[in-house]
Amino acid sequence: MDWPPESPDLNPIELVWGNMKNYIRKKNVRTVDYLRDAIFEYWKTLTPEVCRNYICGIMQKMERVVEQEGRNIYEGK
After folding, report:
1. Which of 22, 30, 51, 64 has a beta carbon 3.0–4.6 Å from 73's, enabling a disulfide?
2. Cα dihedral: 36, 53, 62, 19 (round 10)
3. What DSSP state is assigned to residue 74?
4. Confidence (pTM)
5. 15 lies in which domain range?
Protein backbone atom coordinates (compact mmCIF):
# COMPACT_ATOMS: atom_id res chain seq x y z
CA MET A 1 0.00 0.00 0.00
CA ASP A 2 1.35 3.43 -0.93
CA TRP A 3 1.28 6.06 1.80
CA PRO A 4 1.08 9.77 1.07
CA PRO A 5 4.06 11.94 1.98
CA GLU A 6 4.16 13.07 5.59
CA SER A 7 5.03 16.45 6.99
CA PRO A 8 5.35 16.99 10.74
CA ASP A 9 4.78 20.71 10.07
CA LEU A 10 1.20 19.85 9.12
CA ASN A 11 0.44 17.80 12.21
CA PRO A 12 -0.76 19.80 15.25
CA ILE A 13 0.49 17.23 17.77
CA GLU A 14 4.03 17.60 16.44
CA LEU A 15 3.84 21.31 17.28
CA VAL A 16 2.66 20.44 20.78
CA TRP A 17 5.56 18.01 21.28
CA GLY A 18 8.06 20.59 20.03
CA ASN A 19 6.71 23.28 22.33
CA MET A 20 6.62 20.85 25.25
CA LYS A 21 10.27 19.95 24.67
CA ASN A 22 11.20 23.65 24.67
CA TYR A 23 9.18 24.23 27.84
CA ILE A 24 10.86 21.31 29.63
CA ARG A 25 14.31 22.35 28.40
CA LYS A 26 13.80 25.81 29.94
CA LYS A 27 12.86 24.16 33.25
CA ASN A 28 16.31 22.55 33.40
CA VAL A 29 14.84 19.26 34.59
CA ARG A 30 17.28 17.09 36.56
CA THR A 31 15.15 14.23 37.89
CA VAL A 32 12.46 11.92 36.60
CA ASP A 33 10.02 13.28 39.17
CA TYR A 34 10.69 16.85 38.08
CA LEU A 35 10.32 15.78 34.45
CA ARG A 36 6.92 14.26 35.19
CA ASP A 37 5.86 17.42 37.03
CA ALA A 38 7.02 19.62 34.15
CA ILE A 39 5.11 17.51 31.62
CA PHE A 40 1.89 17.73 33.65
CA GLU A 41 2.44 21.44 34.19
CA TYR A 42 2.82 22.00 30.44
CA TRP A 43 -0.12 19.74 29.60
CA LYS A 44 -2.39 21.87 31.80
CA THR A 45 -1.62 24.87 29.55
CA LEU A 46 -3.26 23.10 26.61
CA THR A 47 -6.67 24.71 26.92
CA PRO A 48 -9.30 24.29 24.20
CA GLU A 49 -8.33 27.77 22.96
CA VAL A 50 -4.65 26.82 22.67
CA CYS A 51 -5.56 23.61 20.83
CA ARG A 52 -7.83 25.55 18.49
CA ASN A 53 -4.93 27.90 17.70
CA TYR A 54 -2.69 24.95 16.82
CA ILE A 55 -5.33 23.57 14.49
CA CYS A 56 -6.09 26.93 12.85
CA GLY A 57 -2.37 27.44 12.26
CA ILE A 58 -2.15 24.08 10.53
CA MET A 59 -5.12 24.94 8.33
CA GLN A 60 -3.35 28.12 7.22
CA LYS A 61 -0.20 26.14 6.42
CA MET A 62 -2.25 23.64 4.42
CA GLU A 63 -3.71 26.46 2.36
CA ARG A 64 -0.17 27.63 1.59
CA VAL A 65 0.84 24.08 0.58
CA VAL A 66 -2.09 23.98 -1.86
CA GLU A 67 -1.13 27.41 -3.23
CA GLN A 68 2.45 26.15 -3.68
CA GLU A 69 1.13 23.00 -5.40
CA GLY A 70 2.69 20.81 -2.73
CA ARG A 71 6.11 22.45 -2.79
CA ASN A 72 7.94 23.39 0.39
CA ILE A 73 6.25 26.47 1.85
CA TYR A 74 9.46 27.48 3.65
CA GLU A 75 11.73 27.66 0.60
CA GLY A 76 13.15 31.06 -0.06
CA LYS A 77 12.68 32.26 3.52
Report:
1. 64
2. -30
3. T
4. 0.70
5. 9-67
Q: How many helices (H) and strands (E) does the chain have?
A: 3, 0
Q: How do residues 40-76 score in pLDDT, each as one tens digit? A: 999 999 999 999 999 998 888 888 888 888 777 776 5
26 neighbors 56 (Cβ within 8 angstroms): no
Q: Does a structural domain hold residue 32? A: yes
Residue 10: which of 74, 67, 55, 68 has the closest Cα? 55
Cα separation, 13 vs 3, in Å, equals: 20
Radius of gyration of the chain from its Cα atoms, rounded to whole angstroms:
16
Is 56 within the bounds of a domain? yes
